[in-house]
Amino acid sequence: MTNSEERESGWNQDIDKTFVDRPREAPSTSSGTSMGSTSEGENNPYVGHNGEHLLPPGDQEVPLGSGKVTCILGTGGMARIYKIWNESLELYRAIKVLLPFQRPELRDRFETEARITAKLDHPNIVDIQTVGEWNGLPFIEMEYIDGCSLDELIARHGRLPESVCCAIAVFIARALHYAHGLEYLLYGKKYRGIIHRDLKPANIMISREGAVKLMDFGIARPQEASFHTAEGNVVGTLQYLSPEQMDGIEIDCRSDIYSFGAILYEILSGVRTFPQETLTNLMKVKALNQYRDFKELKLQISPLLARITLRCLESDPAKRYENAGKLLTDLEHAHGRLSSMGPERTMQAFCTNPSEFTTGSAGVSKRVRAWLWPVAAAAILAGAGAGAWLWLSPGDKQTELTSSVVEAEQSQETASDTPDTSEQSPAIPPPPPQPDPKPAHTRTSAQAHVERTPKPERTHRPTRRSRPRTPPKPRRTKQVSPAEALKERYKESKLAAAAQKALTAGAYDDVLTALDILKEEGKTGRATTLLRIEALMKSGRLDKAQEIADKANFIDAWLVHLRGRLSHAHGNRKAALEYYQSALTKPSVSKSRTTIRNESLYQTALIYDEIFRTDPVSVNRLKAVTAWNNLKRCYKNREGHVRFKTANEKLAEMR
């Protein structure tokens, strides 16, 4: 059997067999593709003298995937991640290359990861661009996230503000809700639902702009497939695995929900839920549901958020959330109670200036800010000079609002000569210290003249006991309605226009808030319905978007197009293509004819390209080439457009 035949055989193995240890002969090098041959020729410097593949270094501009290597981002036990620069698209991408000398089953697992991840199209999941081989080693090319992992964020800042924790949780729950309900085709079989199986902070990326993305579906499995592994072979990161996954028994989406709970606990507390290292100890504490309560850690966590966390961490799957959809509903409700901003704006504010965020200027009620400023002003100003930038200050430890106030109060108490022993309410700042009498030499001439006039002696009377001053009531600020706040935020006089701007900015919760207000005012129609469907889709709430799209009883090209996007997201390519074709012939009240044509042809090209990558036969190649050429014609006068460049790149790959 040649190498190419061996690889084709591996790709067509039933998925249930790719995650159990099985004997298999090593690939033969006696015939077929030489292990030393690449696009660089037989004299490739990155191939060892014995003919086995070696990975390229990270300090040379070696061609890899669609670009050239700029550096190595990291190396794990199974693969190495490179950062590459795509010259034609003028952007960075990441490439995950399987390490050489891996067991055959790990290669199968890697290739299955590529197929599974390629099915996922969600704003909170890292996007896969393409797959390929370098020197016979498979790679996955994906979007590059300019930021850091949640694991690194915890290491730098400790526990995060509650509203930030809840916002991160909302985004991951959206990704899980989408993945757990996705319908797709894999190795010729239809499946519904993908279980990640390795949820942990290191697999969650946060960009500088505040985008939250789930990645690394390396051991993900279809929900309907068997999950038995070889005896003693536990896959995943032990501290975050569910008890049933550690036992090697059948699991479902509730296993991911357990791992999700362990992550939420960690970002709320700053410590691991289960710090034990050995498998035996971890299995014991997880079976008994033994971990430190928030109260034991002396943390004041929102009761609603604490209940969500504890329910996710139930050792009995039946007591956890039934699915990620119900979890998402509770999290969105909790975030609305914690912050006046949506999750998107919360993350943007935090990533822009985390130091300012935690001292109360973002997402904190006006009543709290009114009394916080006089107490914590010195601490804020001192911290501002340190340049507390999220990605550049690994030594800074983020603290909650309450701890910042306590530190400011303690610093004032230390500065005074005598400690204040009067009792103070924790919700009210202590009164300012009384000024000391000025020494005689500092008095003004007017004061000295007055003192030269003799005064009769006064009998000494005991001074009255000073009482704590009542702090002044905070100024009443003008109450602004949610509608006016949204119009002010997006500099629009009409709420519908503000909703459209919010959609463009990616603030989907603001869009839905604006549309809810318009609905209450009776101002609904085709445009608002289409806007709602689009906002729900882009925020990962596909089921709700589908429900509204199905109920819509008007004819509009953009509605037809959105139905195509929903069909594609649910794995129905045939229906999606029919919708895109139909959209080209319908009128629209919300989008121009050019926009609908360009969007529909672009989505059509993506589907045919996906079909060709899955089954690279000549007829599929012809359909993909035709689709990309049709898209190119749409942008023939804008050759610098990213879609024109993408079409050129795809066509070059298929030559």
What topology does this entry show?
Layout: H1 3-11, E1 63-64, E2 67-75, E3 79-86, E4 91-98, H2 104-118, E5 128-134, E6 137-143, E7 147-149, H3 150-157, H4 162-181, E8 183-186, E9 189-192, E10 194-195, E11 204-207, E12 212-214, E13 221-222, H5 243-246, H6 253-269, H7 279-287, H8 303-312, H9 324-338, H10 343-352, H11 354-361, H12 366-384, H13 401-415, H14 445-452, H15 482-489, H16 495-505, H17 508-520, H18 526-538, H19 542-551, H20 557-569, H21 573-583, H22 593-614, H23 618-634, H24 642-653
Antiparallel strand pairs: 1-2, 2-3, 3-4, 4-6, 5-6, 7-11, 8-9, 10-13, 11-12
Helix pairs in contact: 4-6, 4-9, 4-10, 6-8, 10-11, 11-12, 12-13, 15-16, 16-17, 16-18, 17-18, 18-19, 18-20, 19-20, 20-21, 20-22, 21-22, 22-23, 23-24
Describe what this molecule looks like in 3D.
The protein is α+β, with helices and mostly antiparallel strands. The chain folds into five domains: 3-42 and 52-143, Phosphorylase Kinase, domain 1 (2-Layer Sandwich), CATH 3.30.200.20; 147-349, Transferase(Phosphotransferase), domain 1, CATH 1.10.510; 353-410, no CATH class; 483-548, no CATH class; 555-655, Serine Threonine Protein Phosphatase 5, Tetratricopeptide repeat (Alpha Horseshoe). Helix content is 45%, strand content 10%. It is built from 24 helices and 13 strands. It has helices at residues 3-11, 104-118, 150-157, 162-181, 243-246, 253-269, 279-287, 303-312, 324-338, 343-352, 354-361, 366-384, 401-415, 445-452, 482-489, 495-505, 508-520, 526-538, 542-551, 557-569, 573-583, 593-614, 618-634, 642-653; strands at 63-64, 67-75, 79-86, 91-98, 128-134, 137-143, 147-149, 183-186, 189-192, 194-195, 204-207, 212-214, 221-222. The strands form four sheets. The protein has a six-stranded antiparallel sheet, with helices on one face. A three-stranded antiparallel sheet has the order 7-11-12. Strands 8-9 form a two-stranded antiparallel sheet. A hairpin with a 4-residue loop joins β3 (79-86) and β4 (91-98). The chain is globular and about 70 Å long. The model is unreliable at 1-53, 227-232 and 359-453 (pLDDT under 50).
